[in-house]
Design brief:
By secondary structure, the protein is an alpha/beta fold. The protein has eight helices and six strands; from the N terminus they run E-H-E-E-E-H-E-H-H-E-H-H-H-H. The chain has a six-stranded mixed sheet with strand order 2-3-1-4-5-6, sandwiched between helices. Keywords: Oxidoreductase, Pyruvate.
Length: 198
């Protein structure tokens, strides 16, 4: 029987997947939980895929096998489509309603699927789709989208929301703490969760 809770965070270079995984790791430390994580970087400097594997309470390595993730957090719709095979049927996906079209698509004149067709292709999953960019701007910085996404996913993660919020405070630069805490709470609210933590 599986003893770990496995989270895959995917995005494009510069979107903050590594910071998001660091927040999860810090929250685990705050709760005295075992955590293992690993990042695999594509051509991150050129907008390539970046994936962060986070295993909570696991006894083995950090890399998650396809079809076994408990939660996929995707910072972009195309990345959700690219990594959906990491989830079993009916798996849980929290995705940003943002669509970043890779440069190669323009160079090769490839058709880009729209939001509706992507979400249709993900219909066998339990999907929470939010507009993280709008919420990040409301929080005070477009750069806080990754923390918005963590807030939106927090109800599906077996960690206390107050631990996650404290981890945000620890992991982000001091001058951005207020913005990022607001972003975390707005993400929770967007996912139908109580925005404030005890």
């Amino acid at each position: 029987m599986k003893s770990s809770f496995d989270i895959l965070i995917v995005g494009i270079g510069g979107q903050g997947t590594v910071l998001a995984s660091n927040v999860l790791g810090e929250a685990c430390i705050l709760e005295n939980r075992t955590v293992r994580s690993a990042e695999t970087h594509g051509m991150a400097q050129r907008g390539g895929s970046v994936e962060s594997h986070v295993r909570i309470d696991g006894k083995f390595g950090s890399l998650i096998a396809p079809g076994t993730a408990d939660l996929l957090i995707a910072f972009d719709l195309l990345e959700a489509l690219r990594y959906r095979h990491y989830l079993p049927p009916g798996g849980r996906l929290v995705v940003n309603r943002r669509l970043v079209v890779p440069t190669s698509v323009y160079q090769q004149a490839i058709d880009v699927p729209d939001e509706e067709s992507i979400l249709s292709a993900l219909a066998d999953l339990e999907v929470t789709c939010i507009d993280a960019a709008a919420l990040a701007e409301e929080a005070g910085s477009i750069l806080s989208q990754n923390i918005v996404m963590l807030g939106a996913a927090s109800g599906k993660i077996p960690l206390k929301p107050e631990s996650l919020e404290e981890a945000v405070r620890i992991c982000v630069p001091p001058k951005t703490v207020e913005v990022n805490v607001r972003a975390f709470r707005l993400g929770r609210e967007a996912a139908g969760l109580n925005p404030s933590t005890p």
